[in-house]
Automatic annotation (TrEMBL), chain A:
InterPro entries: Bact_solute-bd_prot1 (IPR050490), SBP (IPR006059). It comes from Pseudooceanicola albus. It comes from the Bacteria. Residues 1-22 form the signal peptide. It is found in: Periplasm. The lineage of its organism: Bacteria, Pseudomonadati, Pseudomonadota, Alphaproteobacteria, Rhodobacterales. This is Probable sugar-binding periplasmic protein. Belongs to the bacterial solute-binding protein 1 family. One of its GO terms (cellular component) is periplasmic space.
UniProtKB/TrEMBL annotation, chain B:
Coiled coil: none annotated. GO terms for biological process: transmembrane transport. Gene3D superfamilies: MetI-like. It comes from Pseudooceanicola albus. Pfam families: BPD_transp_1 (PF00528). This is ABC transporter permease subunit. It comes from the Bacteria.
Automatic annotation (TrEMBL), chain C:
The keyword Phosphoprotein does not apply. It is found in: Cell membrane. One of its GO terms (biological process) is transmembrane transport. Residues 67-280 form the ABC transmembrane type-1 domain. This is ABC transporter permease subunit. It comes from Pseudooceanicola albus. GO terms for cellular component: plasma membrane.
Amino acid sequence: MTIKHVIAASSAMALLAFPAVAEPTAEVLHWWTSGGEAKSVAVLQEQFKERGGVWTDMPVAGGGGDAAMTALRARVLSGNPPTAVQLKGPAIQEWYEEGVLADISDVAEEQHWGDVLPAQIAEHMKCDGHWCAAPVNVHRVNWIWGNKKILDDNGIAMPTTWEEFNAAAEKLKAAGITPLAHGGQAWQDATVFETVVLGMGGPEFYQKALVDLDMDALGSDTMIKVFDEMRVLRGFVDENYPGRDWNLATAMVMNGEAAFQIMGDWAKGEFLAAGKKPGVDFTCAATPGHGFLYNVDSFAMFDVGDDADKVAGQKLLAELIVAPSFQETFNLNKGSIPVRTDVSLDKFDDCAKLSSKDMNADAKDGSLLPSYAHGMALRGEPAGAITDVVTAHFNSDMTSEEAVKQLQDAVANAM
Amino acid sequence: MTDATYVSPLAGQRSTSARFGRIALRAGLYAMLILFALWYLMPLFVMITTSLKSLDEIRTGSLVALPREITFEPWRIAWSQACTGTQCEGLKPFMWNSVIIAIPGVLISTLIGALNGYVFAQWRFRGANMIFALLLFGCFIPFQVVLLPMAKMLGILHLAGTIPGLILVHTIYGLGFTTLFFRNYYVTIPQELVRAAKIDGAAFFRIFWSIFLPLSLPIIVVSVIWQFTQIWNDFLFGVSFSGPGTQPVTVALNNIVNSTTGVKAYNVDMASAIIAALPTLFVYVVAGKYFIRGLTAGSVKG
Amino acid sequence: MSNLLERWVPKVVLAPTFVAVLIFVYGFIGWTAWISLTKSKIMPRYEIDGFDQYTKLFATPRWDTAMNNLYLFGGLFIVISMVLGLMLAIFLDQKIRTEGVIRTIYLYPMALSMIVTGTAWKWILNPQHGIEAMVQGWGFAGFRFDWLVNPDMAIYTIVLAGVWQSSGFVMALFLAGLRSVDGEIIKAAQVDGIPNWRIYTAIIIPSMAPIFLSAFIVLSHLAIKSFDLVVALTGGGPGYATDLPATYMYAMAFSRGNLGQAASSAMIMMAVVFAIVVPYLYSELRAKHD
């Protein structure tokens, strides 16, 4: 009896003595599990620990986050969501609508995120006007990579229009070189498709067709021309492309089997890992046309009720993710650029500097646009429906007219 | 083989046909068996050779050629250094999770399956066939369908993210198969055996224990092979119903192999895949031995 | 008294399984049926909306491809695995000296996770790196083996890898079955001078009917659930030429956040399975019963 009282009293005192100090804890569900990606997220874990936090790692790779999303649904349904989850694009708002996201506006305002993030990108991090996610990086999707030696030998400059690209490709083909290294997986087909939409239709058309899903734009003559160009590109790809992983396509450019590859800036990591130097062994340039397609990774915070430790963990995590020091280290590791506009780029390579310069310029004239192929522009359903048509067209003899018709049907069906 | 009483028709034949014909037949038989063995081994060959190459060699050379220089580095990395998240300790820490999920899962589902099969084969009652059909049809439910309701159920049972939760899931969805295996095996045992035992006053469990179980080795082996393979190689349940610290080895393997935008280390991937499969391979080698012993035991019955 | 107990024991033994199946199989099917009538997106919602999801499903060209692939793949996979499994079991049953080794070789593919084996197959079947390149390297320049990259043939590579993975287990099932056949009957038949192939077709194989049932169930289960196989080998491509209902459903449910659509595709899939499997089960179980 008395002992019980003593314990009760002392624990009550303990509570009084340390009233507000919570130990920040975070369980982080993410799909960065290997190589440079894992190292990059480990930096965050390190910083979190330094600030007294307890990090529980919940890595699930596969399918560009599909497997992680499967696990996430199971976790939420079983009433036990992780504290922070790697989510991006409109999926953030989708989860918000299910009523499971937490509000991190106080951290965001304290850290003045509004002043340092490009406005378009900041919009993705907000749910109903308040902040609900923290951005990590900006990948540019519309890059075209070239093998420097092949281009020099054949007297080819990096193309700035699709006509130029076609002409260069014909020349390479005649010289017996595969002009375009491509992996025939649905998402890679979609990646090429969106760069063609941007390049041939311009930023405004891209916005209408792939962001606003405007039926007239989807059925327009411009869209038919886009599919025509896809068919032309199909002729520049070697016949063994189906199913090829993107990194093997990159290897083809590296090894001199192919001249170009259209791929986001993660491809740079492959070149660098093989000891190739930008500007010397390979060249990077924006795909033909004007504009910047971004793919921004971010972490959304899930509602954890009033568990003080977890809430503290979420706030600390959000603060660290956007802080300049993590932005710099992480993006140096990953090949992307910092999402903040005030981080010094001294340590970054020329491709990253170009990316940053274009991002700031394009943000001003409305040509900084979300990538549809990487889940930034549309919700899963319409995006998937478009990809189905794009990949079916690219891998068969479907006519451009038929593709455009199917595109309209599929999007209407997915609304 | 010490198999004395069992006679295979072709081998045991005291044939009058020409000796030469027999030898040719045997040679052809062996040729076929070896040909198929090569076909089965082909992917393993690719995996092993790749796992012994350096990444540079993979990047520059042919993917299916023999290694120019053999290195065991990828195996070491796969076992204890590969990153599976922020943690870079290889597959090692995850093997144990799979073991403590798979072993109880296999044992429980096999035991219940044996009892169920015994009832369906030898103690039929009105409606038993209907229940058996319901159970069998359950084998066909796509696992993607059960994920979400199951998650909710595990939450209600407070088993979400735990090892017992995973054992439960694997046991439930394995029961259809284990029951099927045992039922079909026990059906071939004459019902007179049970009737005679009943007259002698033996009870339900006594008959099972002293007559059926001793005859069951081959089918236990089949059931164990099946269940162990299914549970050990499961990814979908493992990824959905585990939490931090309870993830099975397939999830770790997946995390090593599936890099979204990182550099792919195929040699480490292949080594990891082989390491992750070692326990199943081990079960096959050992179980194969008991297969034969079980047959010997089985043939004594006749 | 004890008689009464005896009557109840078998039912009591079955009860837990029965309850578990009712909840975890049929309850969940019911749940899926419900969801298929709703507008559920990334998470389940329970307001009934009607048969919209089914209408949309049937209007999707990709779903047609997936269903056609299921019939083609499922049929070939089950038949080839059964025939090959039975054939190998009979071969192995001829007092083969190295049986243990060969049997393990035939069985091992089942042990490997397709997540990575798929990559190995991909390389082998890839015209640029694998068999085609190898045979061409031997001097047969005209040799073509491009199934993997040919939209019309790619589905057969899935059959090939599927058979590779599963036929060993079927072989094991049949081997266990062959060895439980009564040796006396065979001896008697041989004494009567009945040719060996007749012994197999007339005596041994018919007596293994329950094994065929097991093999059929195991194989159709694998066929319907083939998911890893497709994801690892072709990723559903070229285009979506090798999509199966299971991969379609997964894509809808988890990549595209359209649970309602996924549930409707699951219901159609189960209806098809029901239509094919139930008559078979019925005839098999009836035959046994009588």
